[in-house]
Design a protein that fits this description.
alpha+beta; six-stranded antiparallel β-barrel
């Protein structure tokens, strides 16, 4: 009996038992692989969704900020198409401290952002009878300007500019805002479609990717009574639609916003 038991203990696994173990191991490995694949796909989808949402938020923030600063009555809207928008965008700010109205020169302090003579720049200048829109024709250095702020101990001149048009009646202390003309549209770069900003001389990629031209970005324009309009001077509300798209899987997310321009 002792010899028989010893032989049984040393016998090992049978072929059927090995096949069962291999089969169970294969099933477990396949299940683990499926879990890993699912988790990887879930992570990839979540990351792609994050990119789409970030693109929508950034594009909406840029467009909404420019639209809220624009005024149709002051000519800020240049072209209003269903798939693109051209308008004057704020790029700088200053406060008037001296004026040479005879030659159209303004001296300013507390200058923020850009206030130079790049092509297409213009100024919105406060006037008691209404804001003035003047093209910015030249920016001068303070050393050669010959203008000074009328304060005994206060701010000094930071920037002097020359504009086209009358400055009569503009008071010292008037706020001045600088604008530059930009066009927004969806354009193709490296096989994908992106929101771009173009000023006629340079194109800047802002956010994306979005759906192809004609579907990734669209605008609808309405007048003060809520009717649809194509007249840039009558725009009182702009509805914009953005459709972000993942490059790999083609999933899409849509954001819509309704923006009312300044002084509307």
């Amino acid at each position: 009996m002792t010899r028989i038991a010893s032989r049984s203990a040393q016998r090992g696994f049978s072929l059927a038992e090995l096949l069962v173990v291999i089969l169970l191991g294969t099933i477990i490995a396949a299940a683990l692989y499926q879990v890993l694949v699912f988790q990887q796909r879930l992570y990839t989808d979540e990351r792609a969704a994050t990119y789409r949402h970030d693109a929508l938020r950034l594009a909406s923030a840029v467009l909404s900020a420019d639209l809220m600063e624009a005024s149709a009555s002051e000519g800020d809207f240049v072209a209003t198409e269903t798939d693109s928008l051209s308008l004057r965008s704020p790029v700088g700010f200053g406060i008037v401290c001296a004026i040479d109205a005879s030659v159209g020169r303004l001296a300013m302090f507390d200058v923020q952002g850009r206030m130079d003579d790049e092509s297409g720049d213009s100024l919105l200048i406060y006037h008691p009878d209404g804001w003035l829109v003047r093209d910015l024709s030249e920016a001068e250095s303070e050393a050669t300007a010959g203008l000074a702020c009328p304060y005994a101990s206060g701010p000094s001149v930071e920037r002097v500019v020359r504009v086209a048009g009358s400055l009569g009646g503009v008071p010292v202390g008037a706020p001045v805002r600088a604008f530059h003309r930009y066009s927004y549209r969806v354009d193709e770069h490296d096989g994908a479609w992106w929101l771009v900003r173009d000023d006629g001389s340079a194109t800047q990629v802002l956010a994306g990717p979005f759906s192809e031209e004609g579907s990734g970005l669209s605008f609808a324009y309405f007048n003060a009574t809520g009717g649809s309009t194509t007249d840039p001077a009558q725009v009182a509300r702009v509805d914009l639609t953005l459709v972000a798209e993942s490059e790999t899987f083609g999933e899409r997310d849509t954001l819509t916003a309704s923006v009312r321009p300044r002084n509307q």
